[in-house]
Design a protein that fits this description.
- By secondary structure, the chain is an alpha+beta fold.
- The chain has a single domain, classed as Ribosomal protein S10 (Alpha-Beta Plaits), CATH 3.30.70.600.
- Helices cover 46% and strands 33% of the residues.
- A three-stranded antiparallel beta sheet has the order 1-3-2, with helices on one face.
- Strand 2 and strand 3 form a beta hairpin.
Length: 69
């Protein structure tokens, strides 16, 4: 079991996109424990679990970030 931290930056000023991003994370990543913190335009996501699942989740997170942020 490990821990990985990934940071995203909200380039557009839409709070609706951030909310949609977070809701989709909740829907698509159910196989890991994670915590999310949002401060201004910075989004910090901490993943807890096996390295293989973390890598899978990172790919999905990046795809969602491209779509919403």
């Amino acid at each position: 079991m490990g821990k990985k931290v990934i940071h995203f930056y909200n380039d557009n000023d839409s709070l609706d996109n951030v909310i949609a991003f977070l809701e989709n994370i909740k829907k698509k990543i159910t196989y890991l424990n994670l915590s999310v913190s949002v401060e201004g335009k910075d989004i910090k996501i901490t993943l807890f679990g096996s390295r293989d699942l973390q890598n899978l989740a990172m790919g999905r997170l990046k795809d969602l970030a491209i779509q919403y942020l």
